[in-house]
Amino acid sequence: MLISGLMVSLMVTWMGAAGTSLNLLRSDDEALQSLRLAKEQISQEVRDASSIIVAQSHVLTLWADDDRNGTLDEGETVSWRITVTGELTRAIDAGPSAQKVNGIDVSTSYFAYDAAVASEVANVTYYLVAIVEENGAPAERVTTATIHVRNA
Questions:
Q1: What percent of the chain stands above pLDDT 90?
Q2: N or C: which end of the chain has fewer CB atoms below 10 A?
């Protein structure tokens, strides 16, 4: 009877640990997937941009001349922002921001540029760090890229 009790106790402990591991993996997978999707979207928008409008360490605003008419029309300004609350957001014109990734480490994530003046930027580098929980402690998941503005 004692052995049966120990076996049941061991099984319950093992099942709890397996559930915790699964939740940690799920959190890590979600963070990585969000970073990948943001990376793809930022990269595509920078490549296709007509120019960079705002070039700051936590803000990237670009002109996406969707109709290729050479005129900055409504709906063609896209802003990516690393917020002080640790979110990576995207907004069109002055509209509401849509959260793309949360859990961004504000102190180590940034946008960087190859020129000091926004209109002269030809290359945009971004370094995004998401914080996830790993074995009960915070862990970093990083994505970075340098993208050339084709139309610069």
A1: 52
A2: N
**Angle at alpha carbon of residue 50, lines to 48 and 56, rounded to 5°:** 95
Q: Whose CA is closest to 35, among 105, 134, 122, 123?
A: 105
Distance CA 42, CA 106 (A): 18
Kindly report the length of the chain. 152
Name the residue ranges covered by the structural domains of the chain: 2-148
- Nearest partner of 58 among 37, 38, 86, judged by Cα: 86
Lowest mean pLDDT among 20-34, 99-113, 127-141: 20-34
Best CA proximity match to 44, nearest among 85, 78, 6: 78
d(CA 102, CA 31): 8
Nearest to 44 by CA among 150, 152, 130: 150
